[in-house]
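On to my pick:
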Amino acid sequence: MLTTGTILTGTLVLYPEREILALKSANDSTYTLPARLVRGFAAKDAPDQQRAGDTYLALQRIFRVFPLPATKSASPVAWGFYEQPSRGPGAVLLRRERAVGYQESLRGDFPGSNGLATQTPSMITFFPGATIITLYLATVAGAVVPLRKPQDVFKHFPAMEPQLRAYVRENGLNLSNDRELSFLVNYANSLAKPTP
């Protein structure tokens, strides 16, 4: 769904490093959409794409757009895609995946076309590495708060902390598992008193 309310369907490719969504519709039209133009989207993964040990939460994954964490530069608000593993209507758990790797550069003096040594620009090769998952909590007010560790979720529900800790014990939840952490956030939302 776009910020205008328009709903598009098709095959999606998310480019999280650039905060761009590419959508190819049934009529072969291709749209390239920056995060600031998208309200959210749902994507279905095929069951065979899930491997043992993957932390997928469901075959249908929900992504929403929120402001990115502020940086030191005074640039305007930047928007990014976050996966939403928990339900609302209160605070929601968000996660972002980021691929990290390393680069190697080759620099040196090599013979130029005139036979003299010339310095060439660096040739950079990127080697993929691990995927870093960062968790956030989106508050009812729309703020996006990073969770440095999963247990930080208790800080956001101080009045309910004893009940939440009891829920974790009674259900044997592993808060390092994103899916189980989303259960805790859902439970916290169920305890919250509805606003009139």
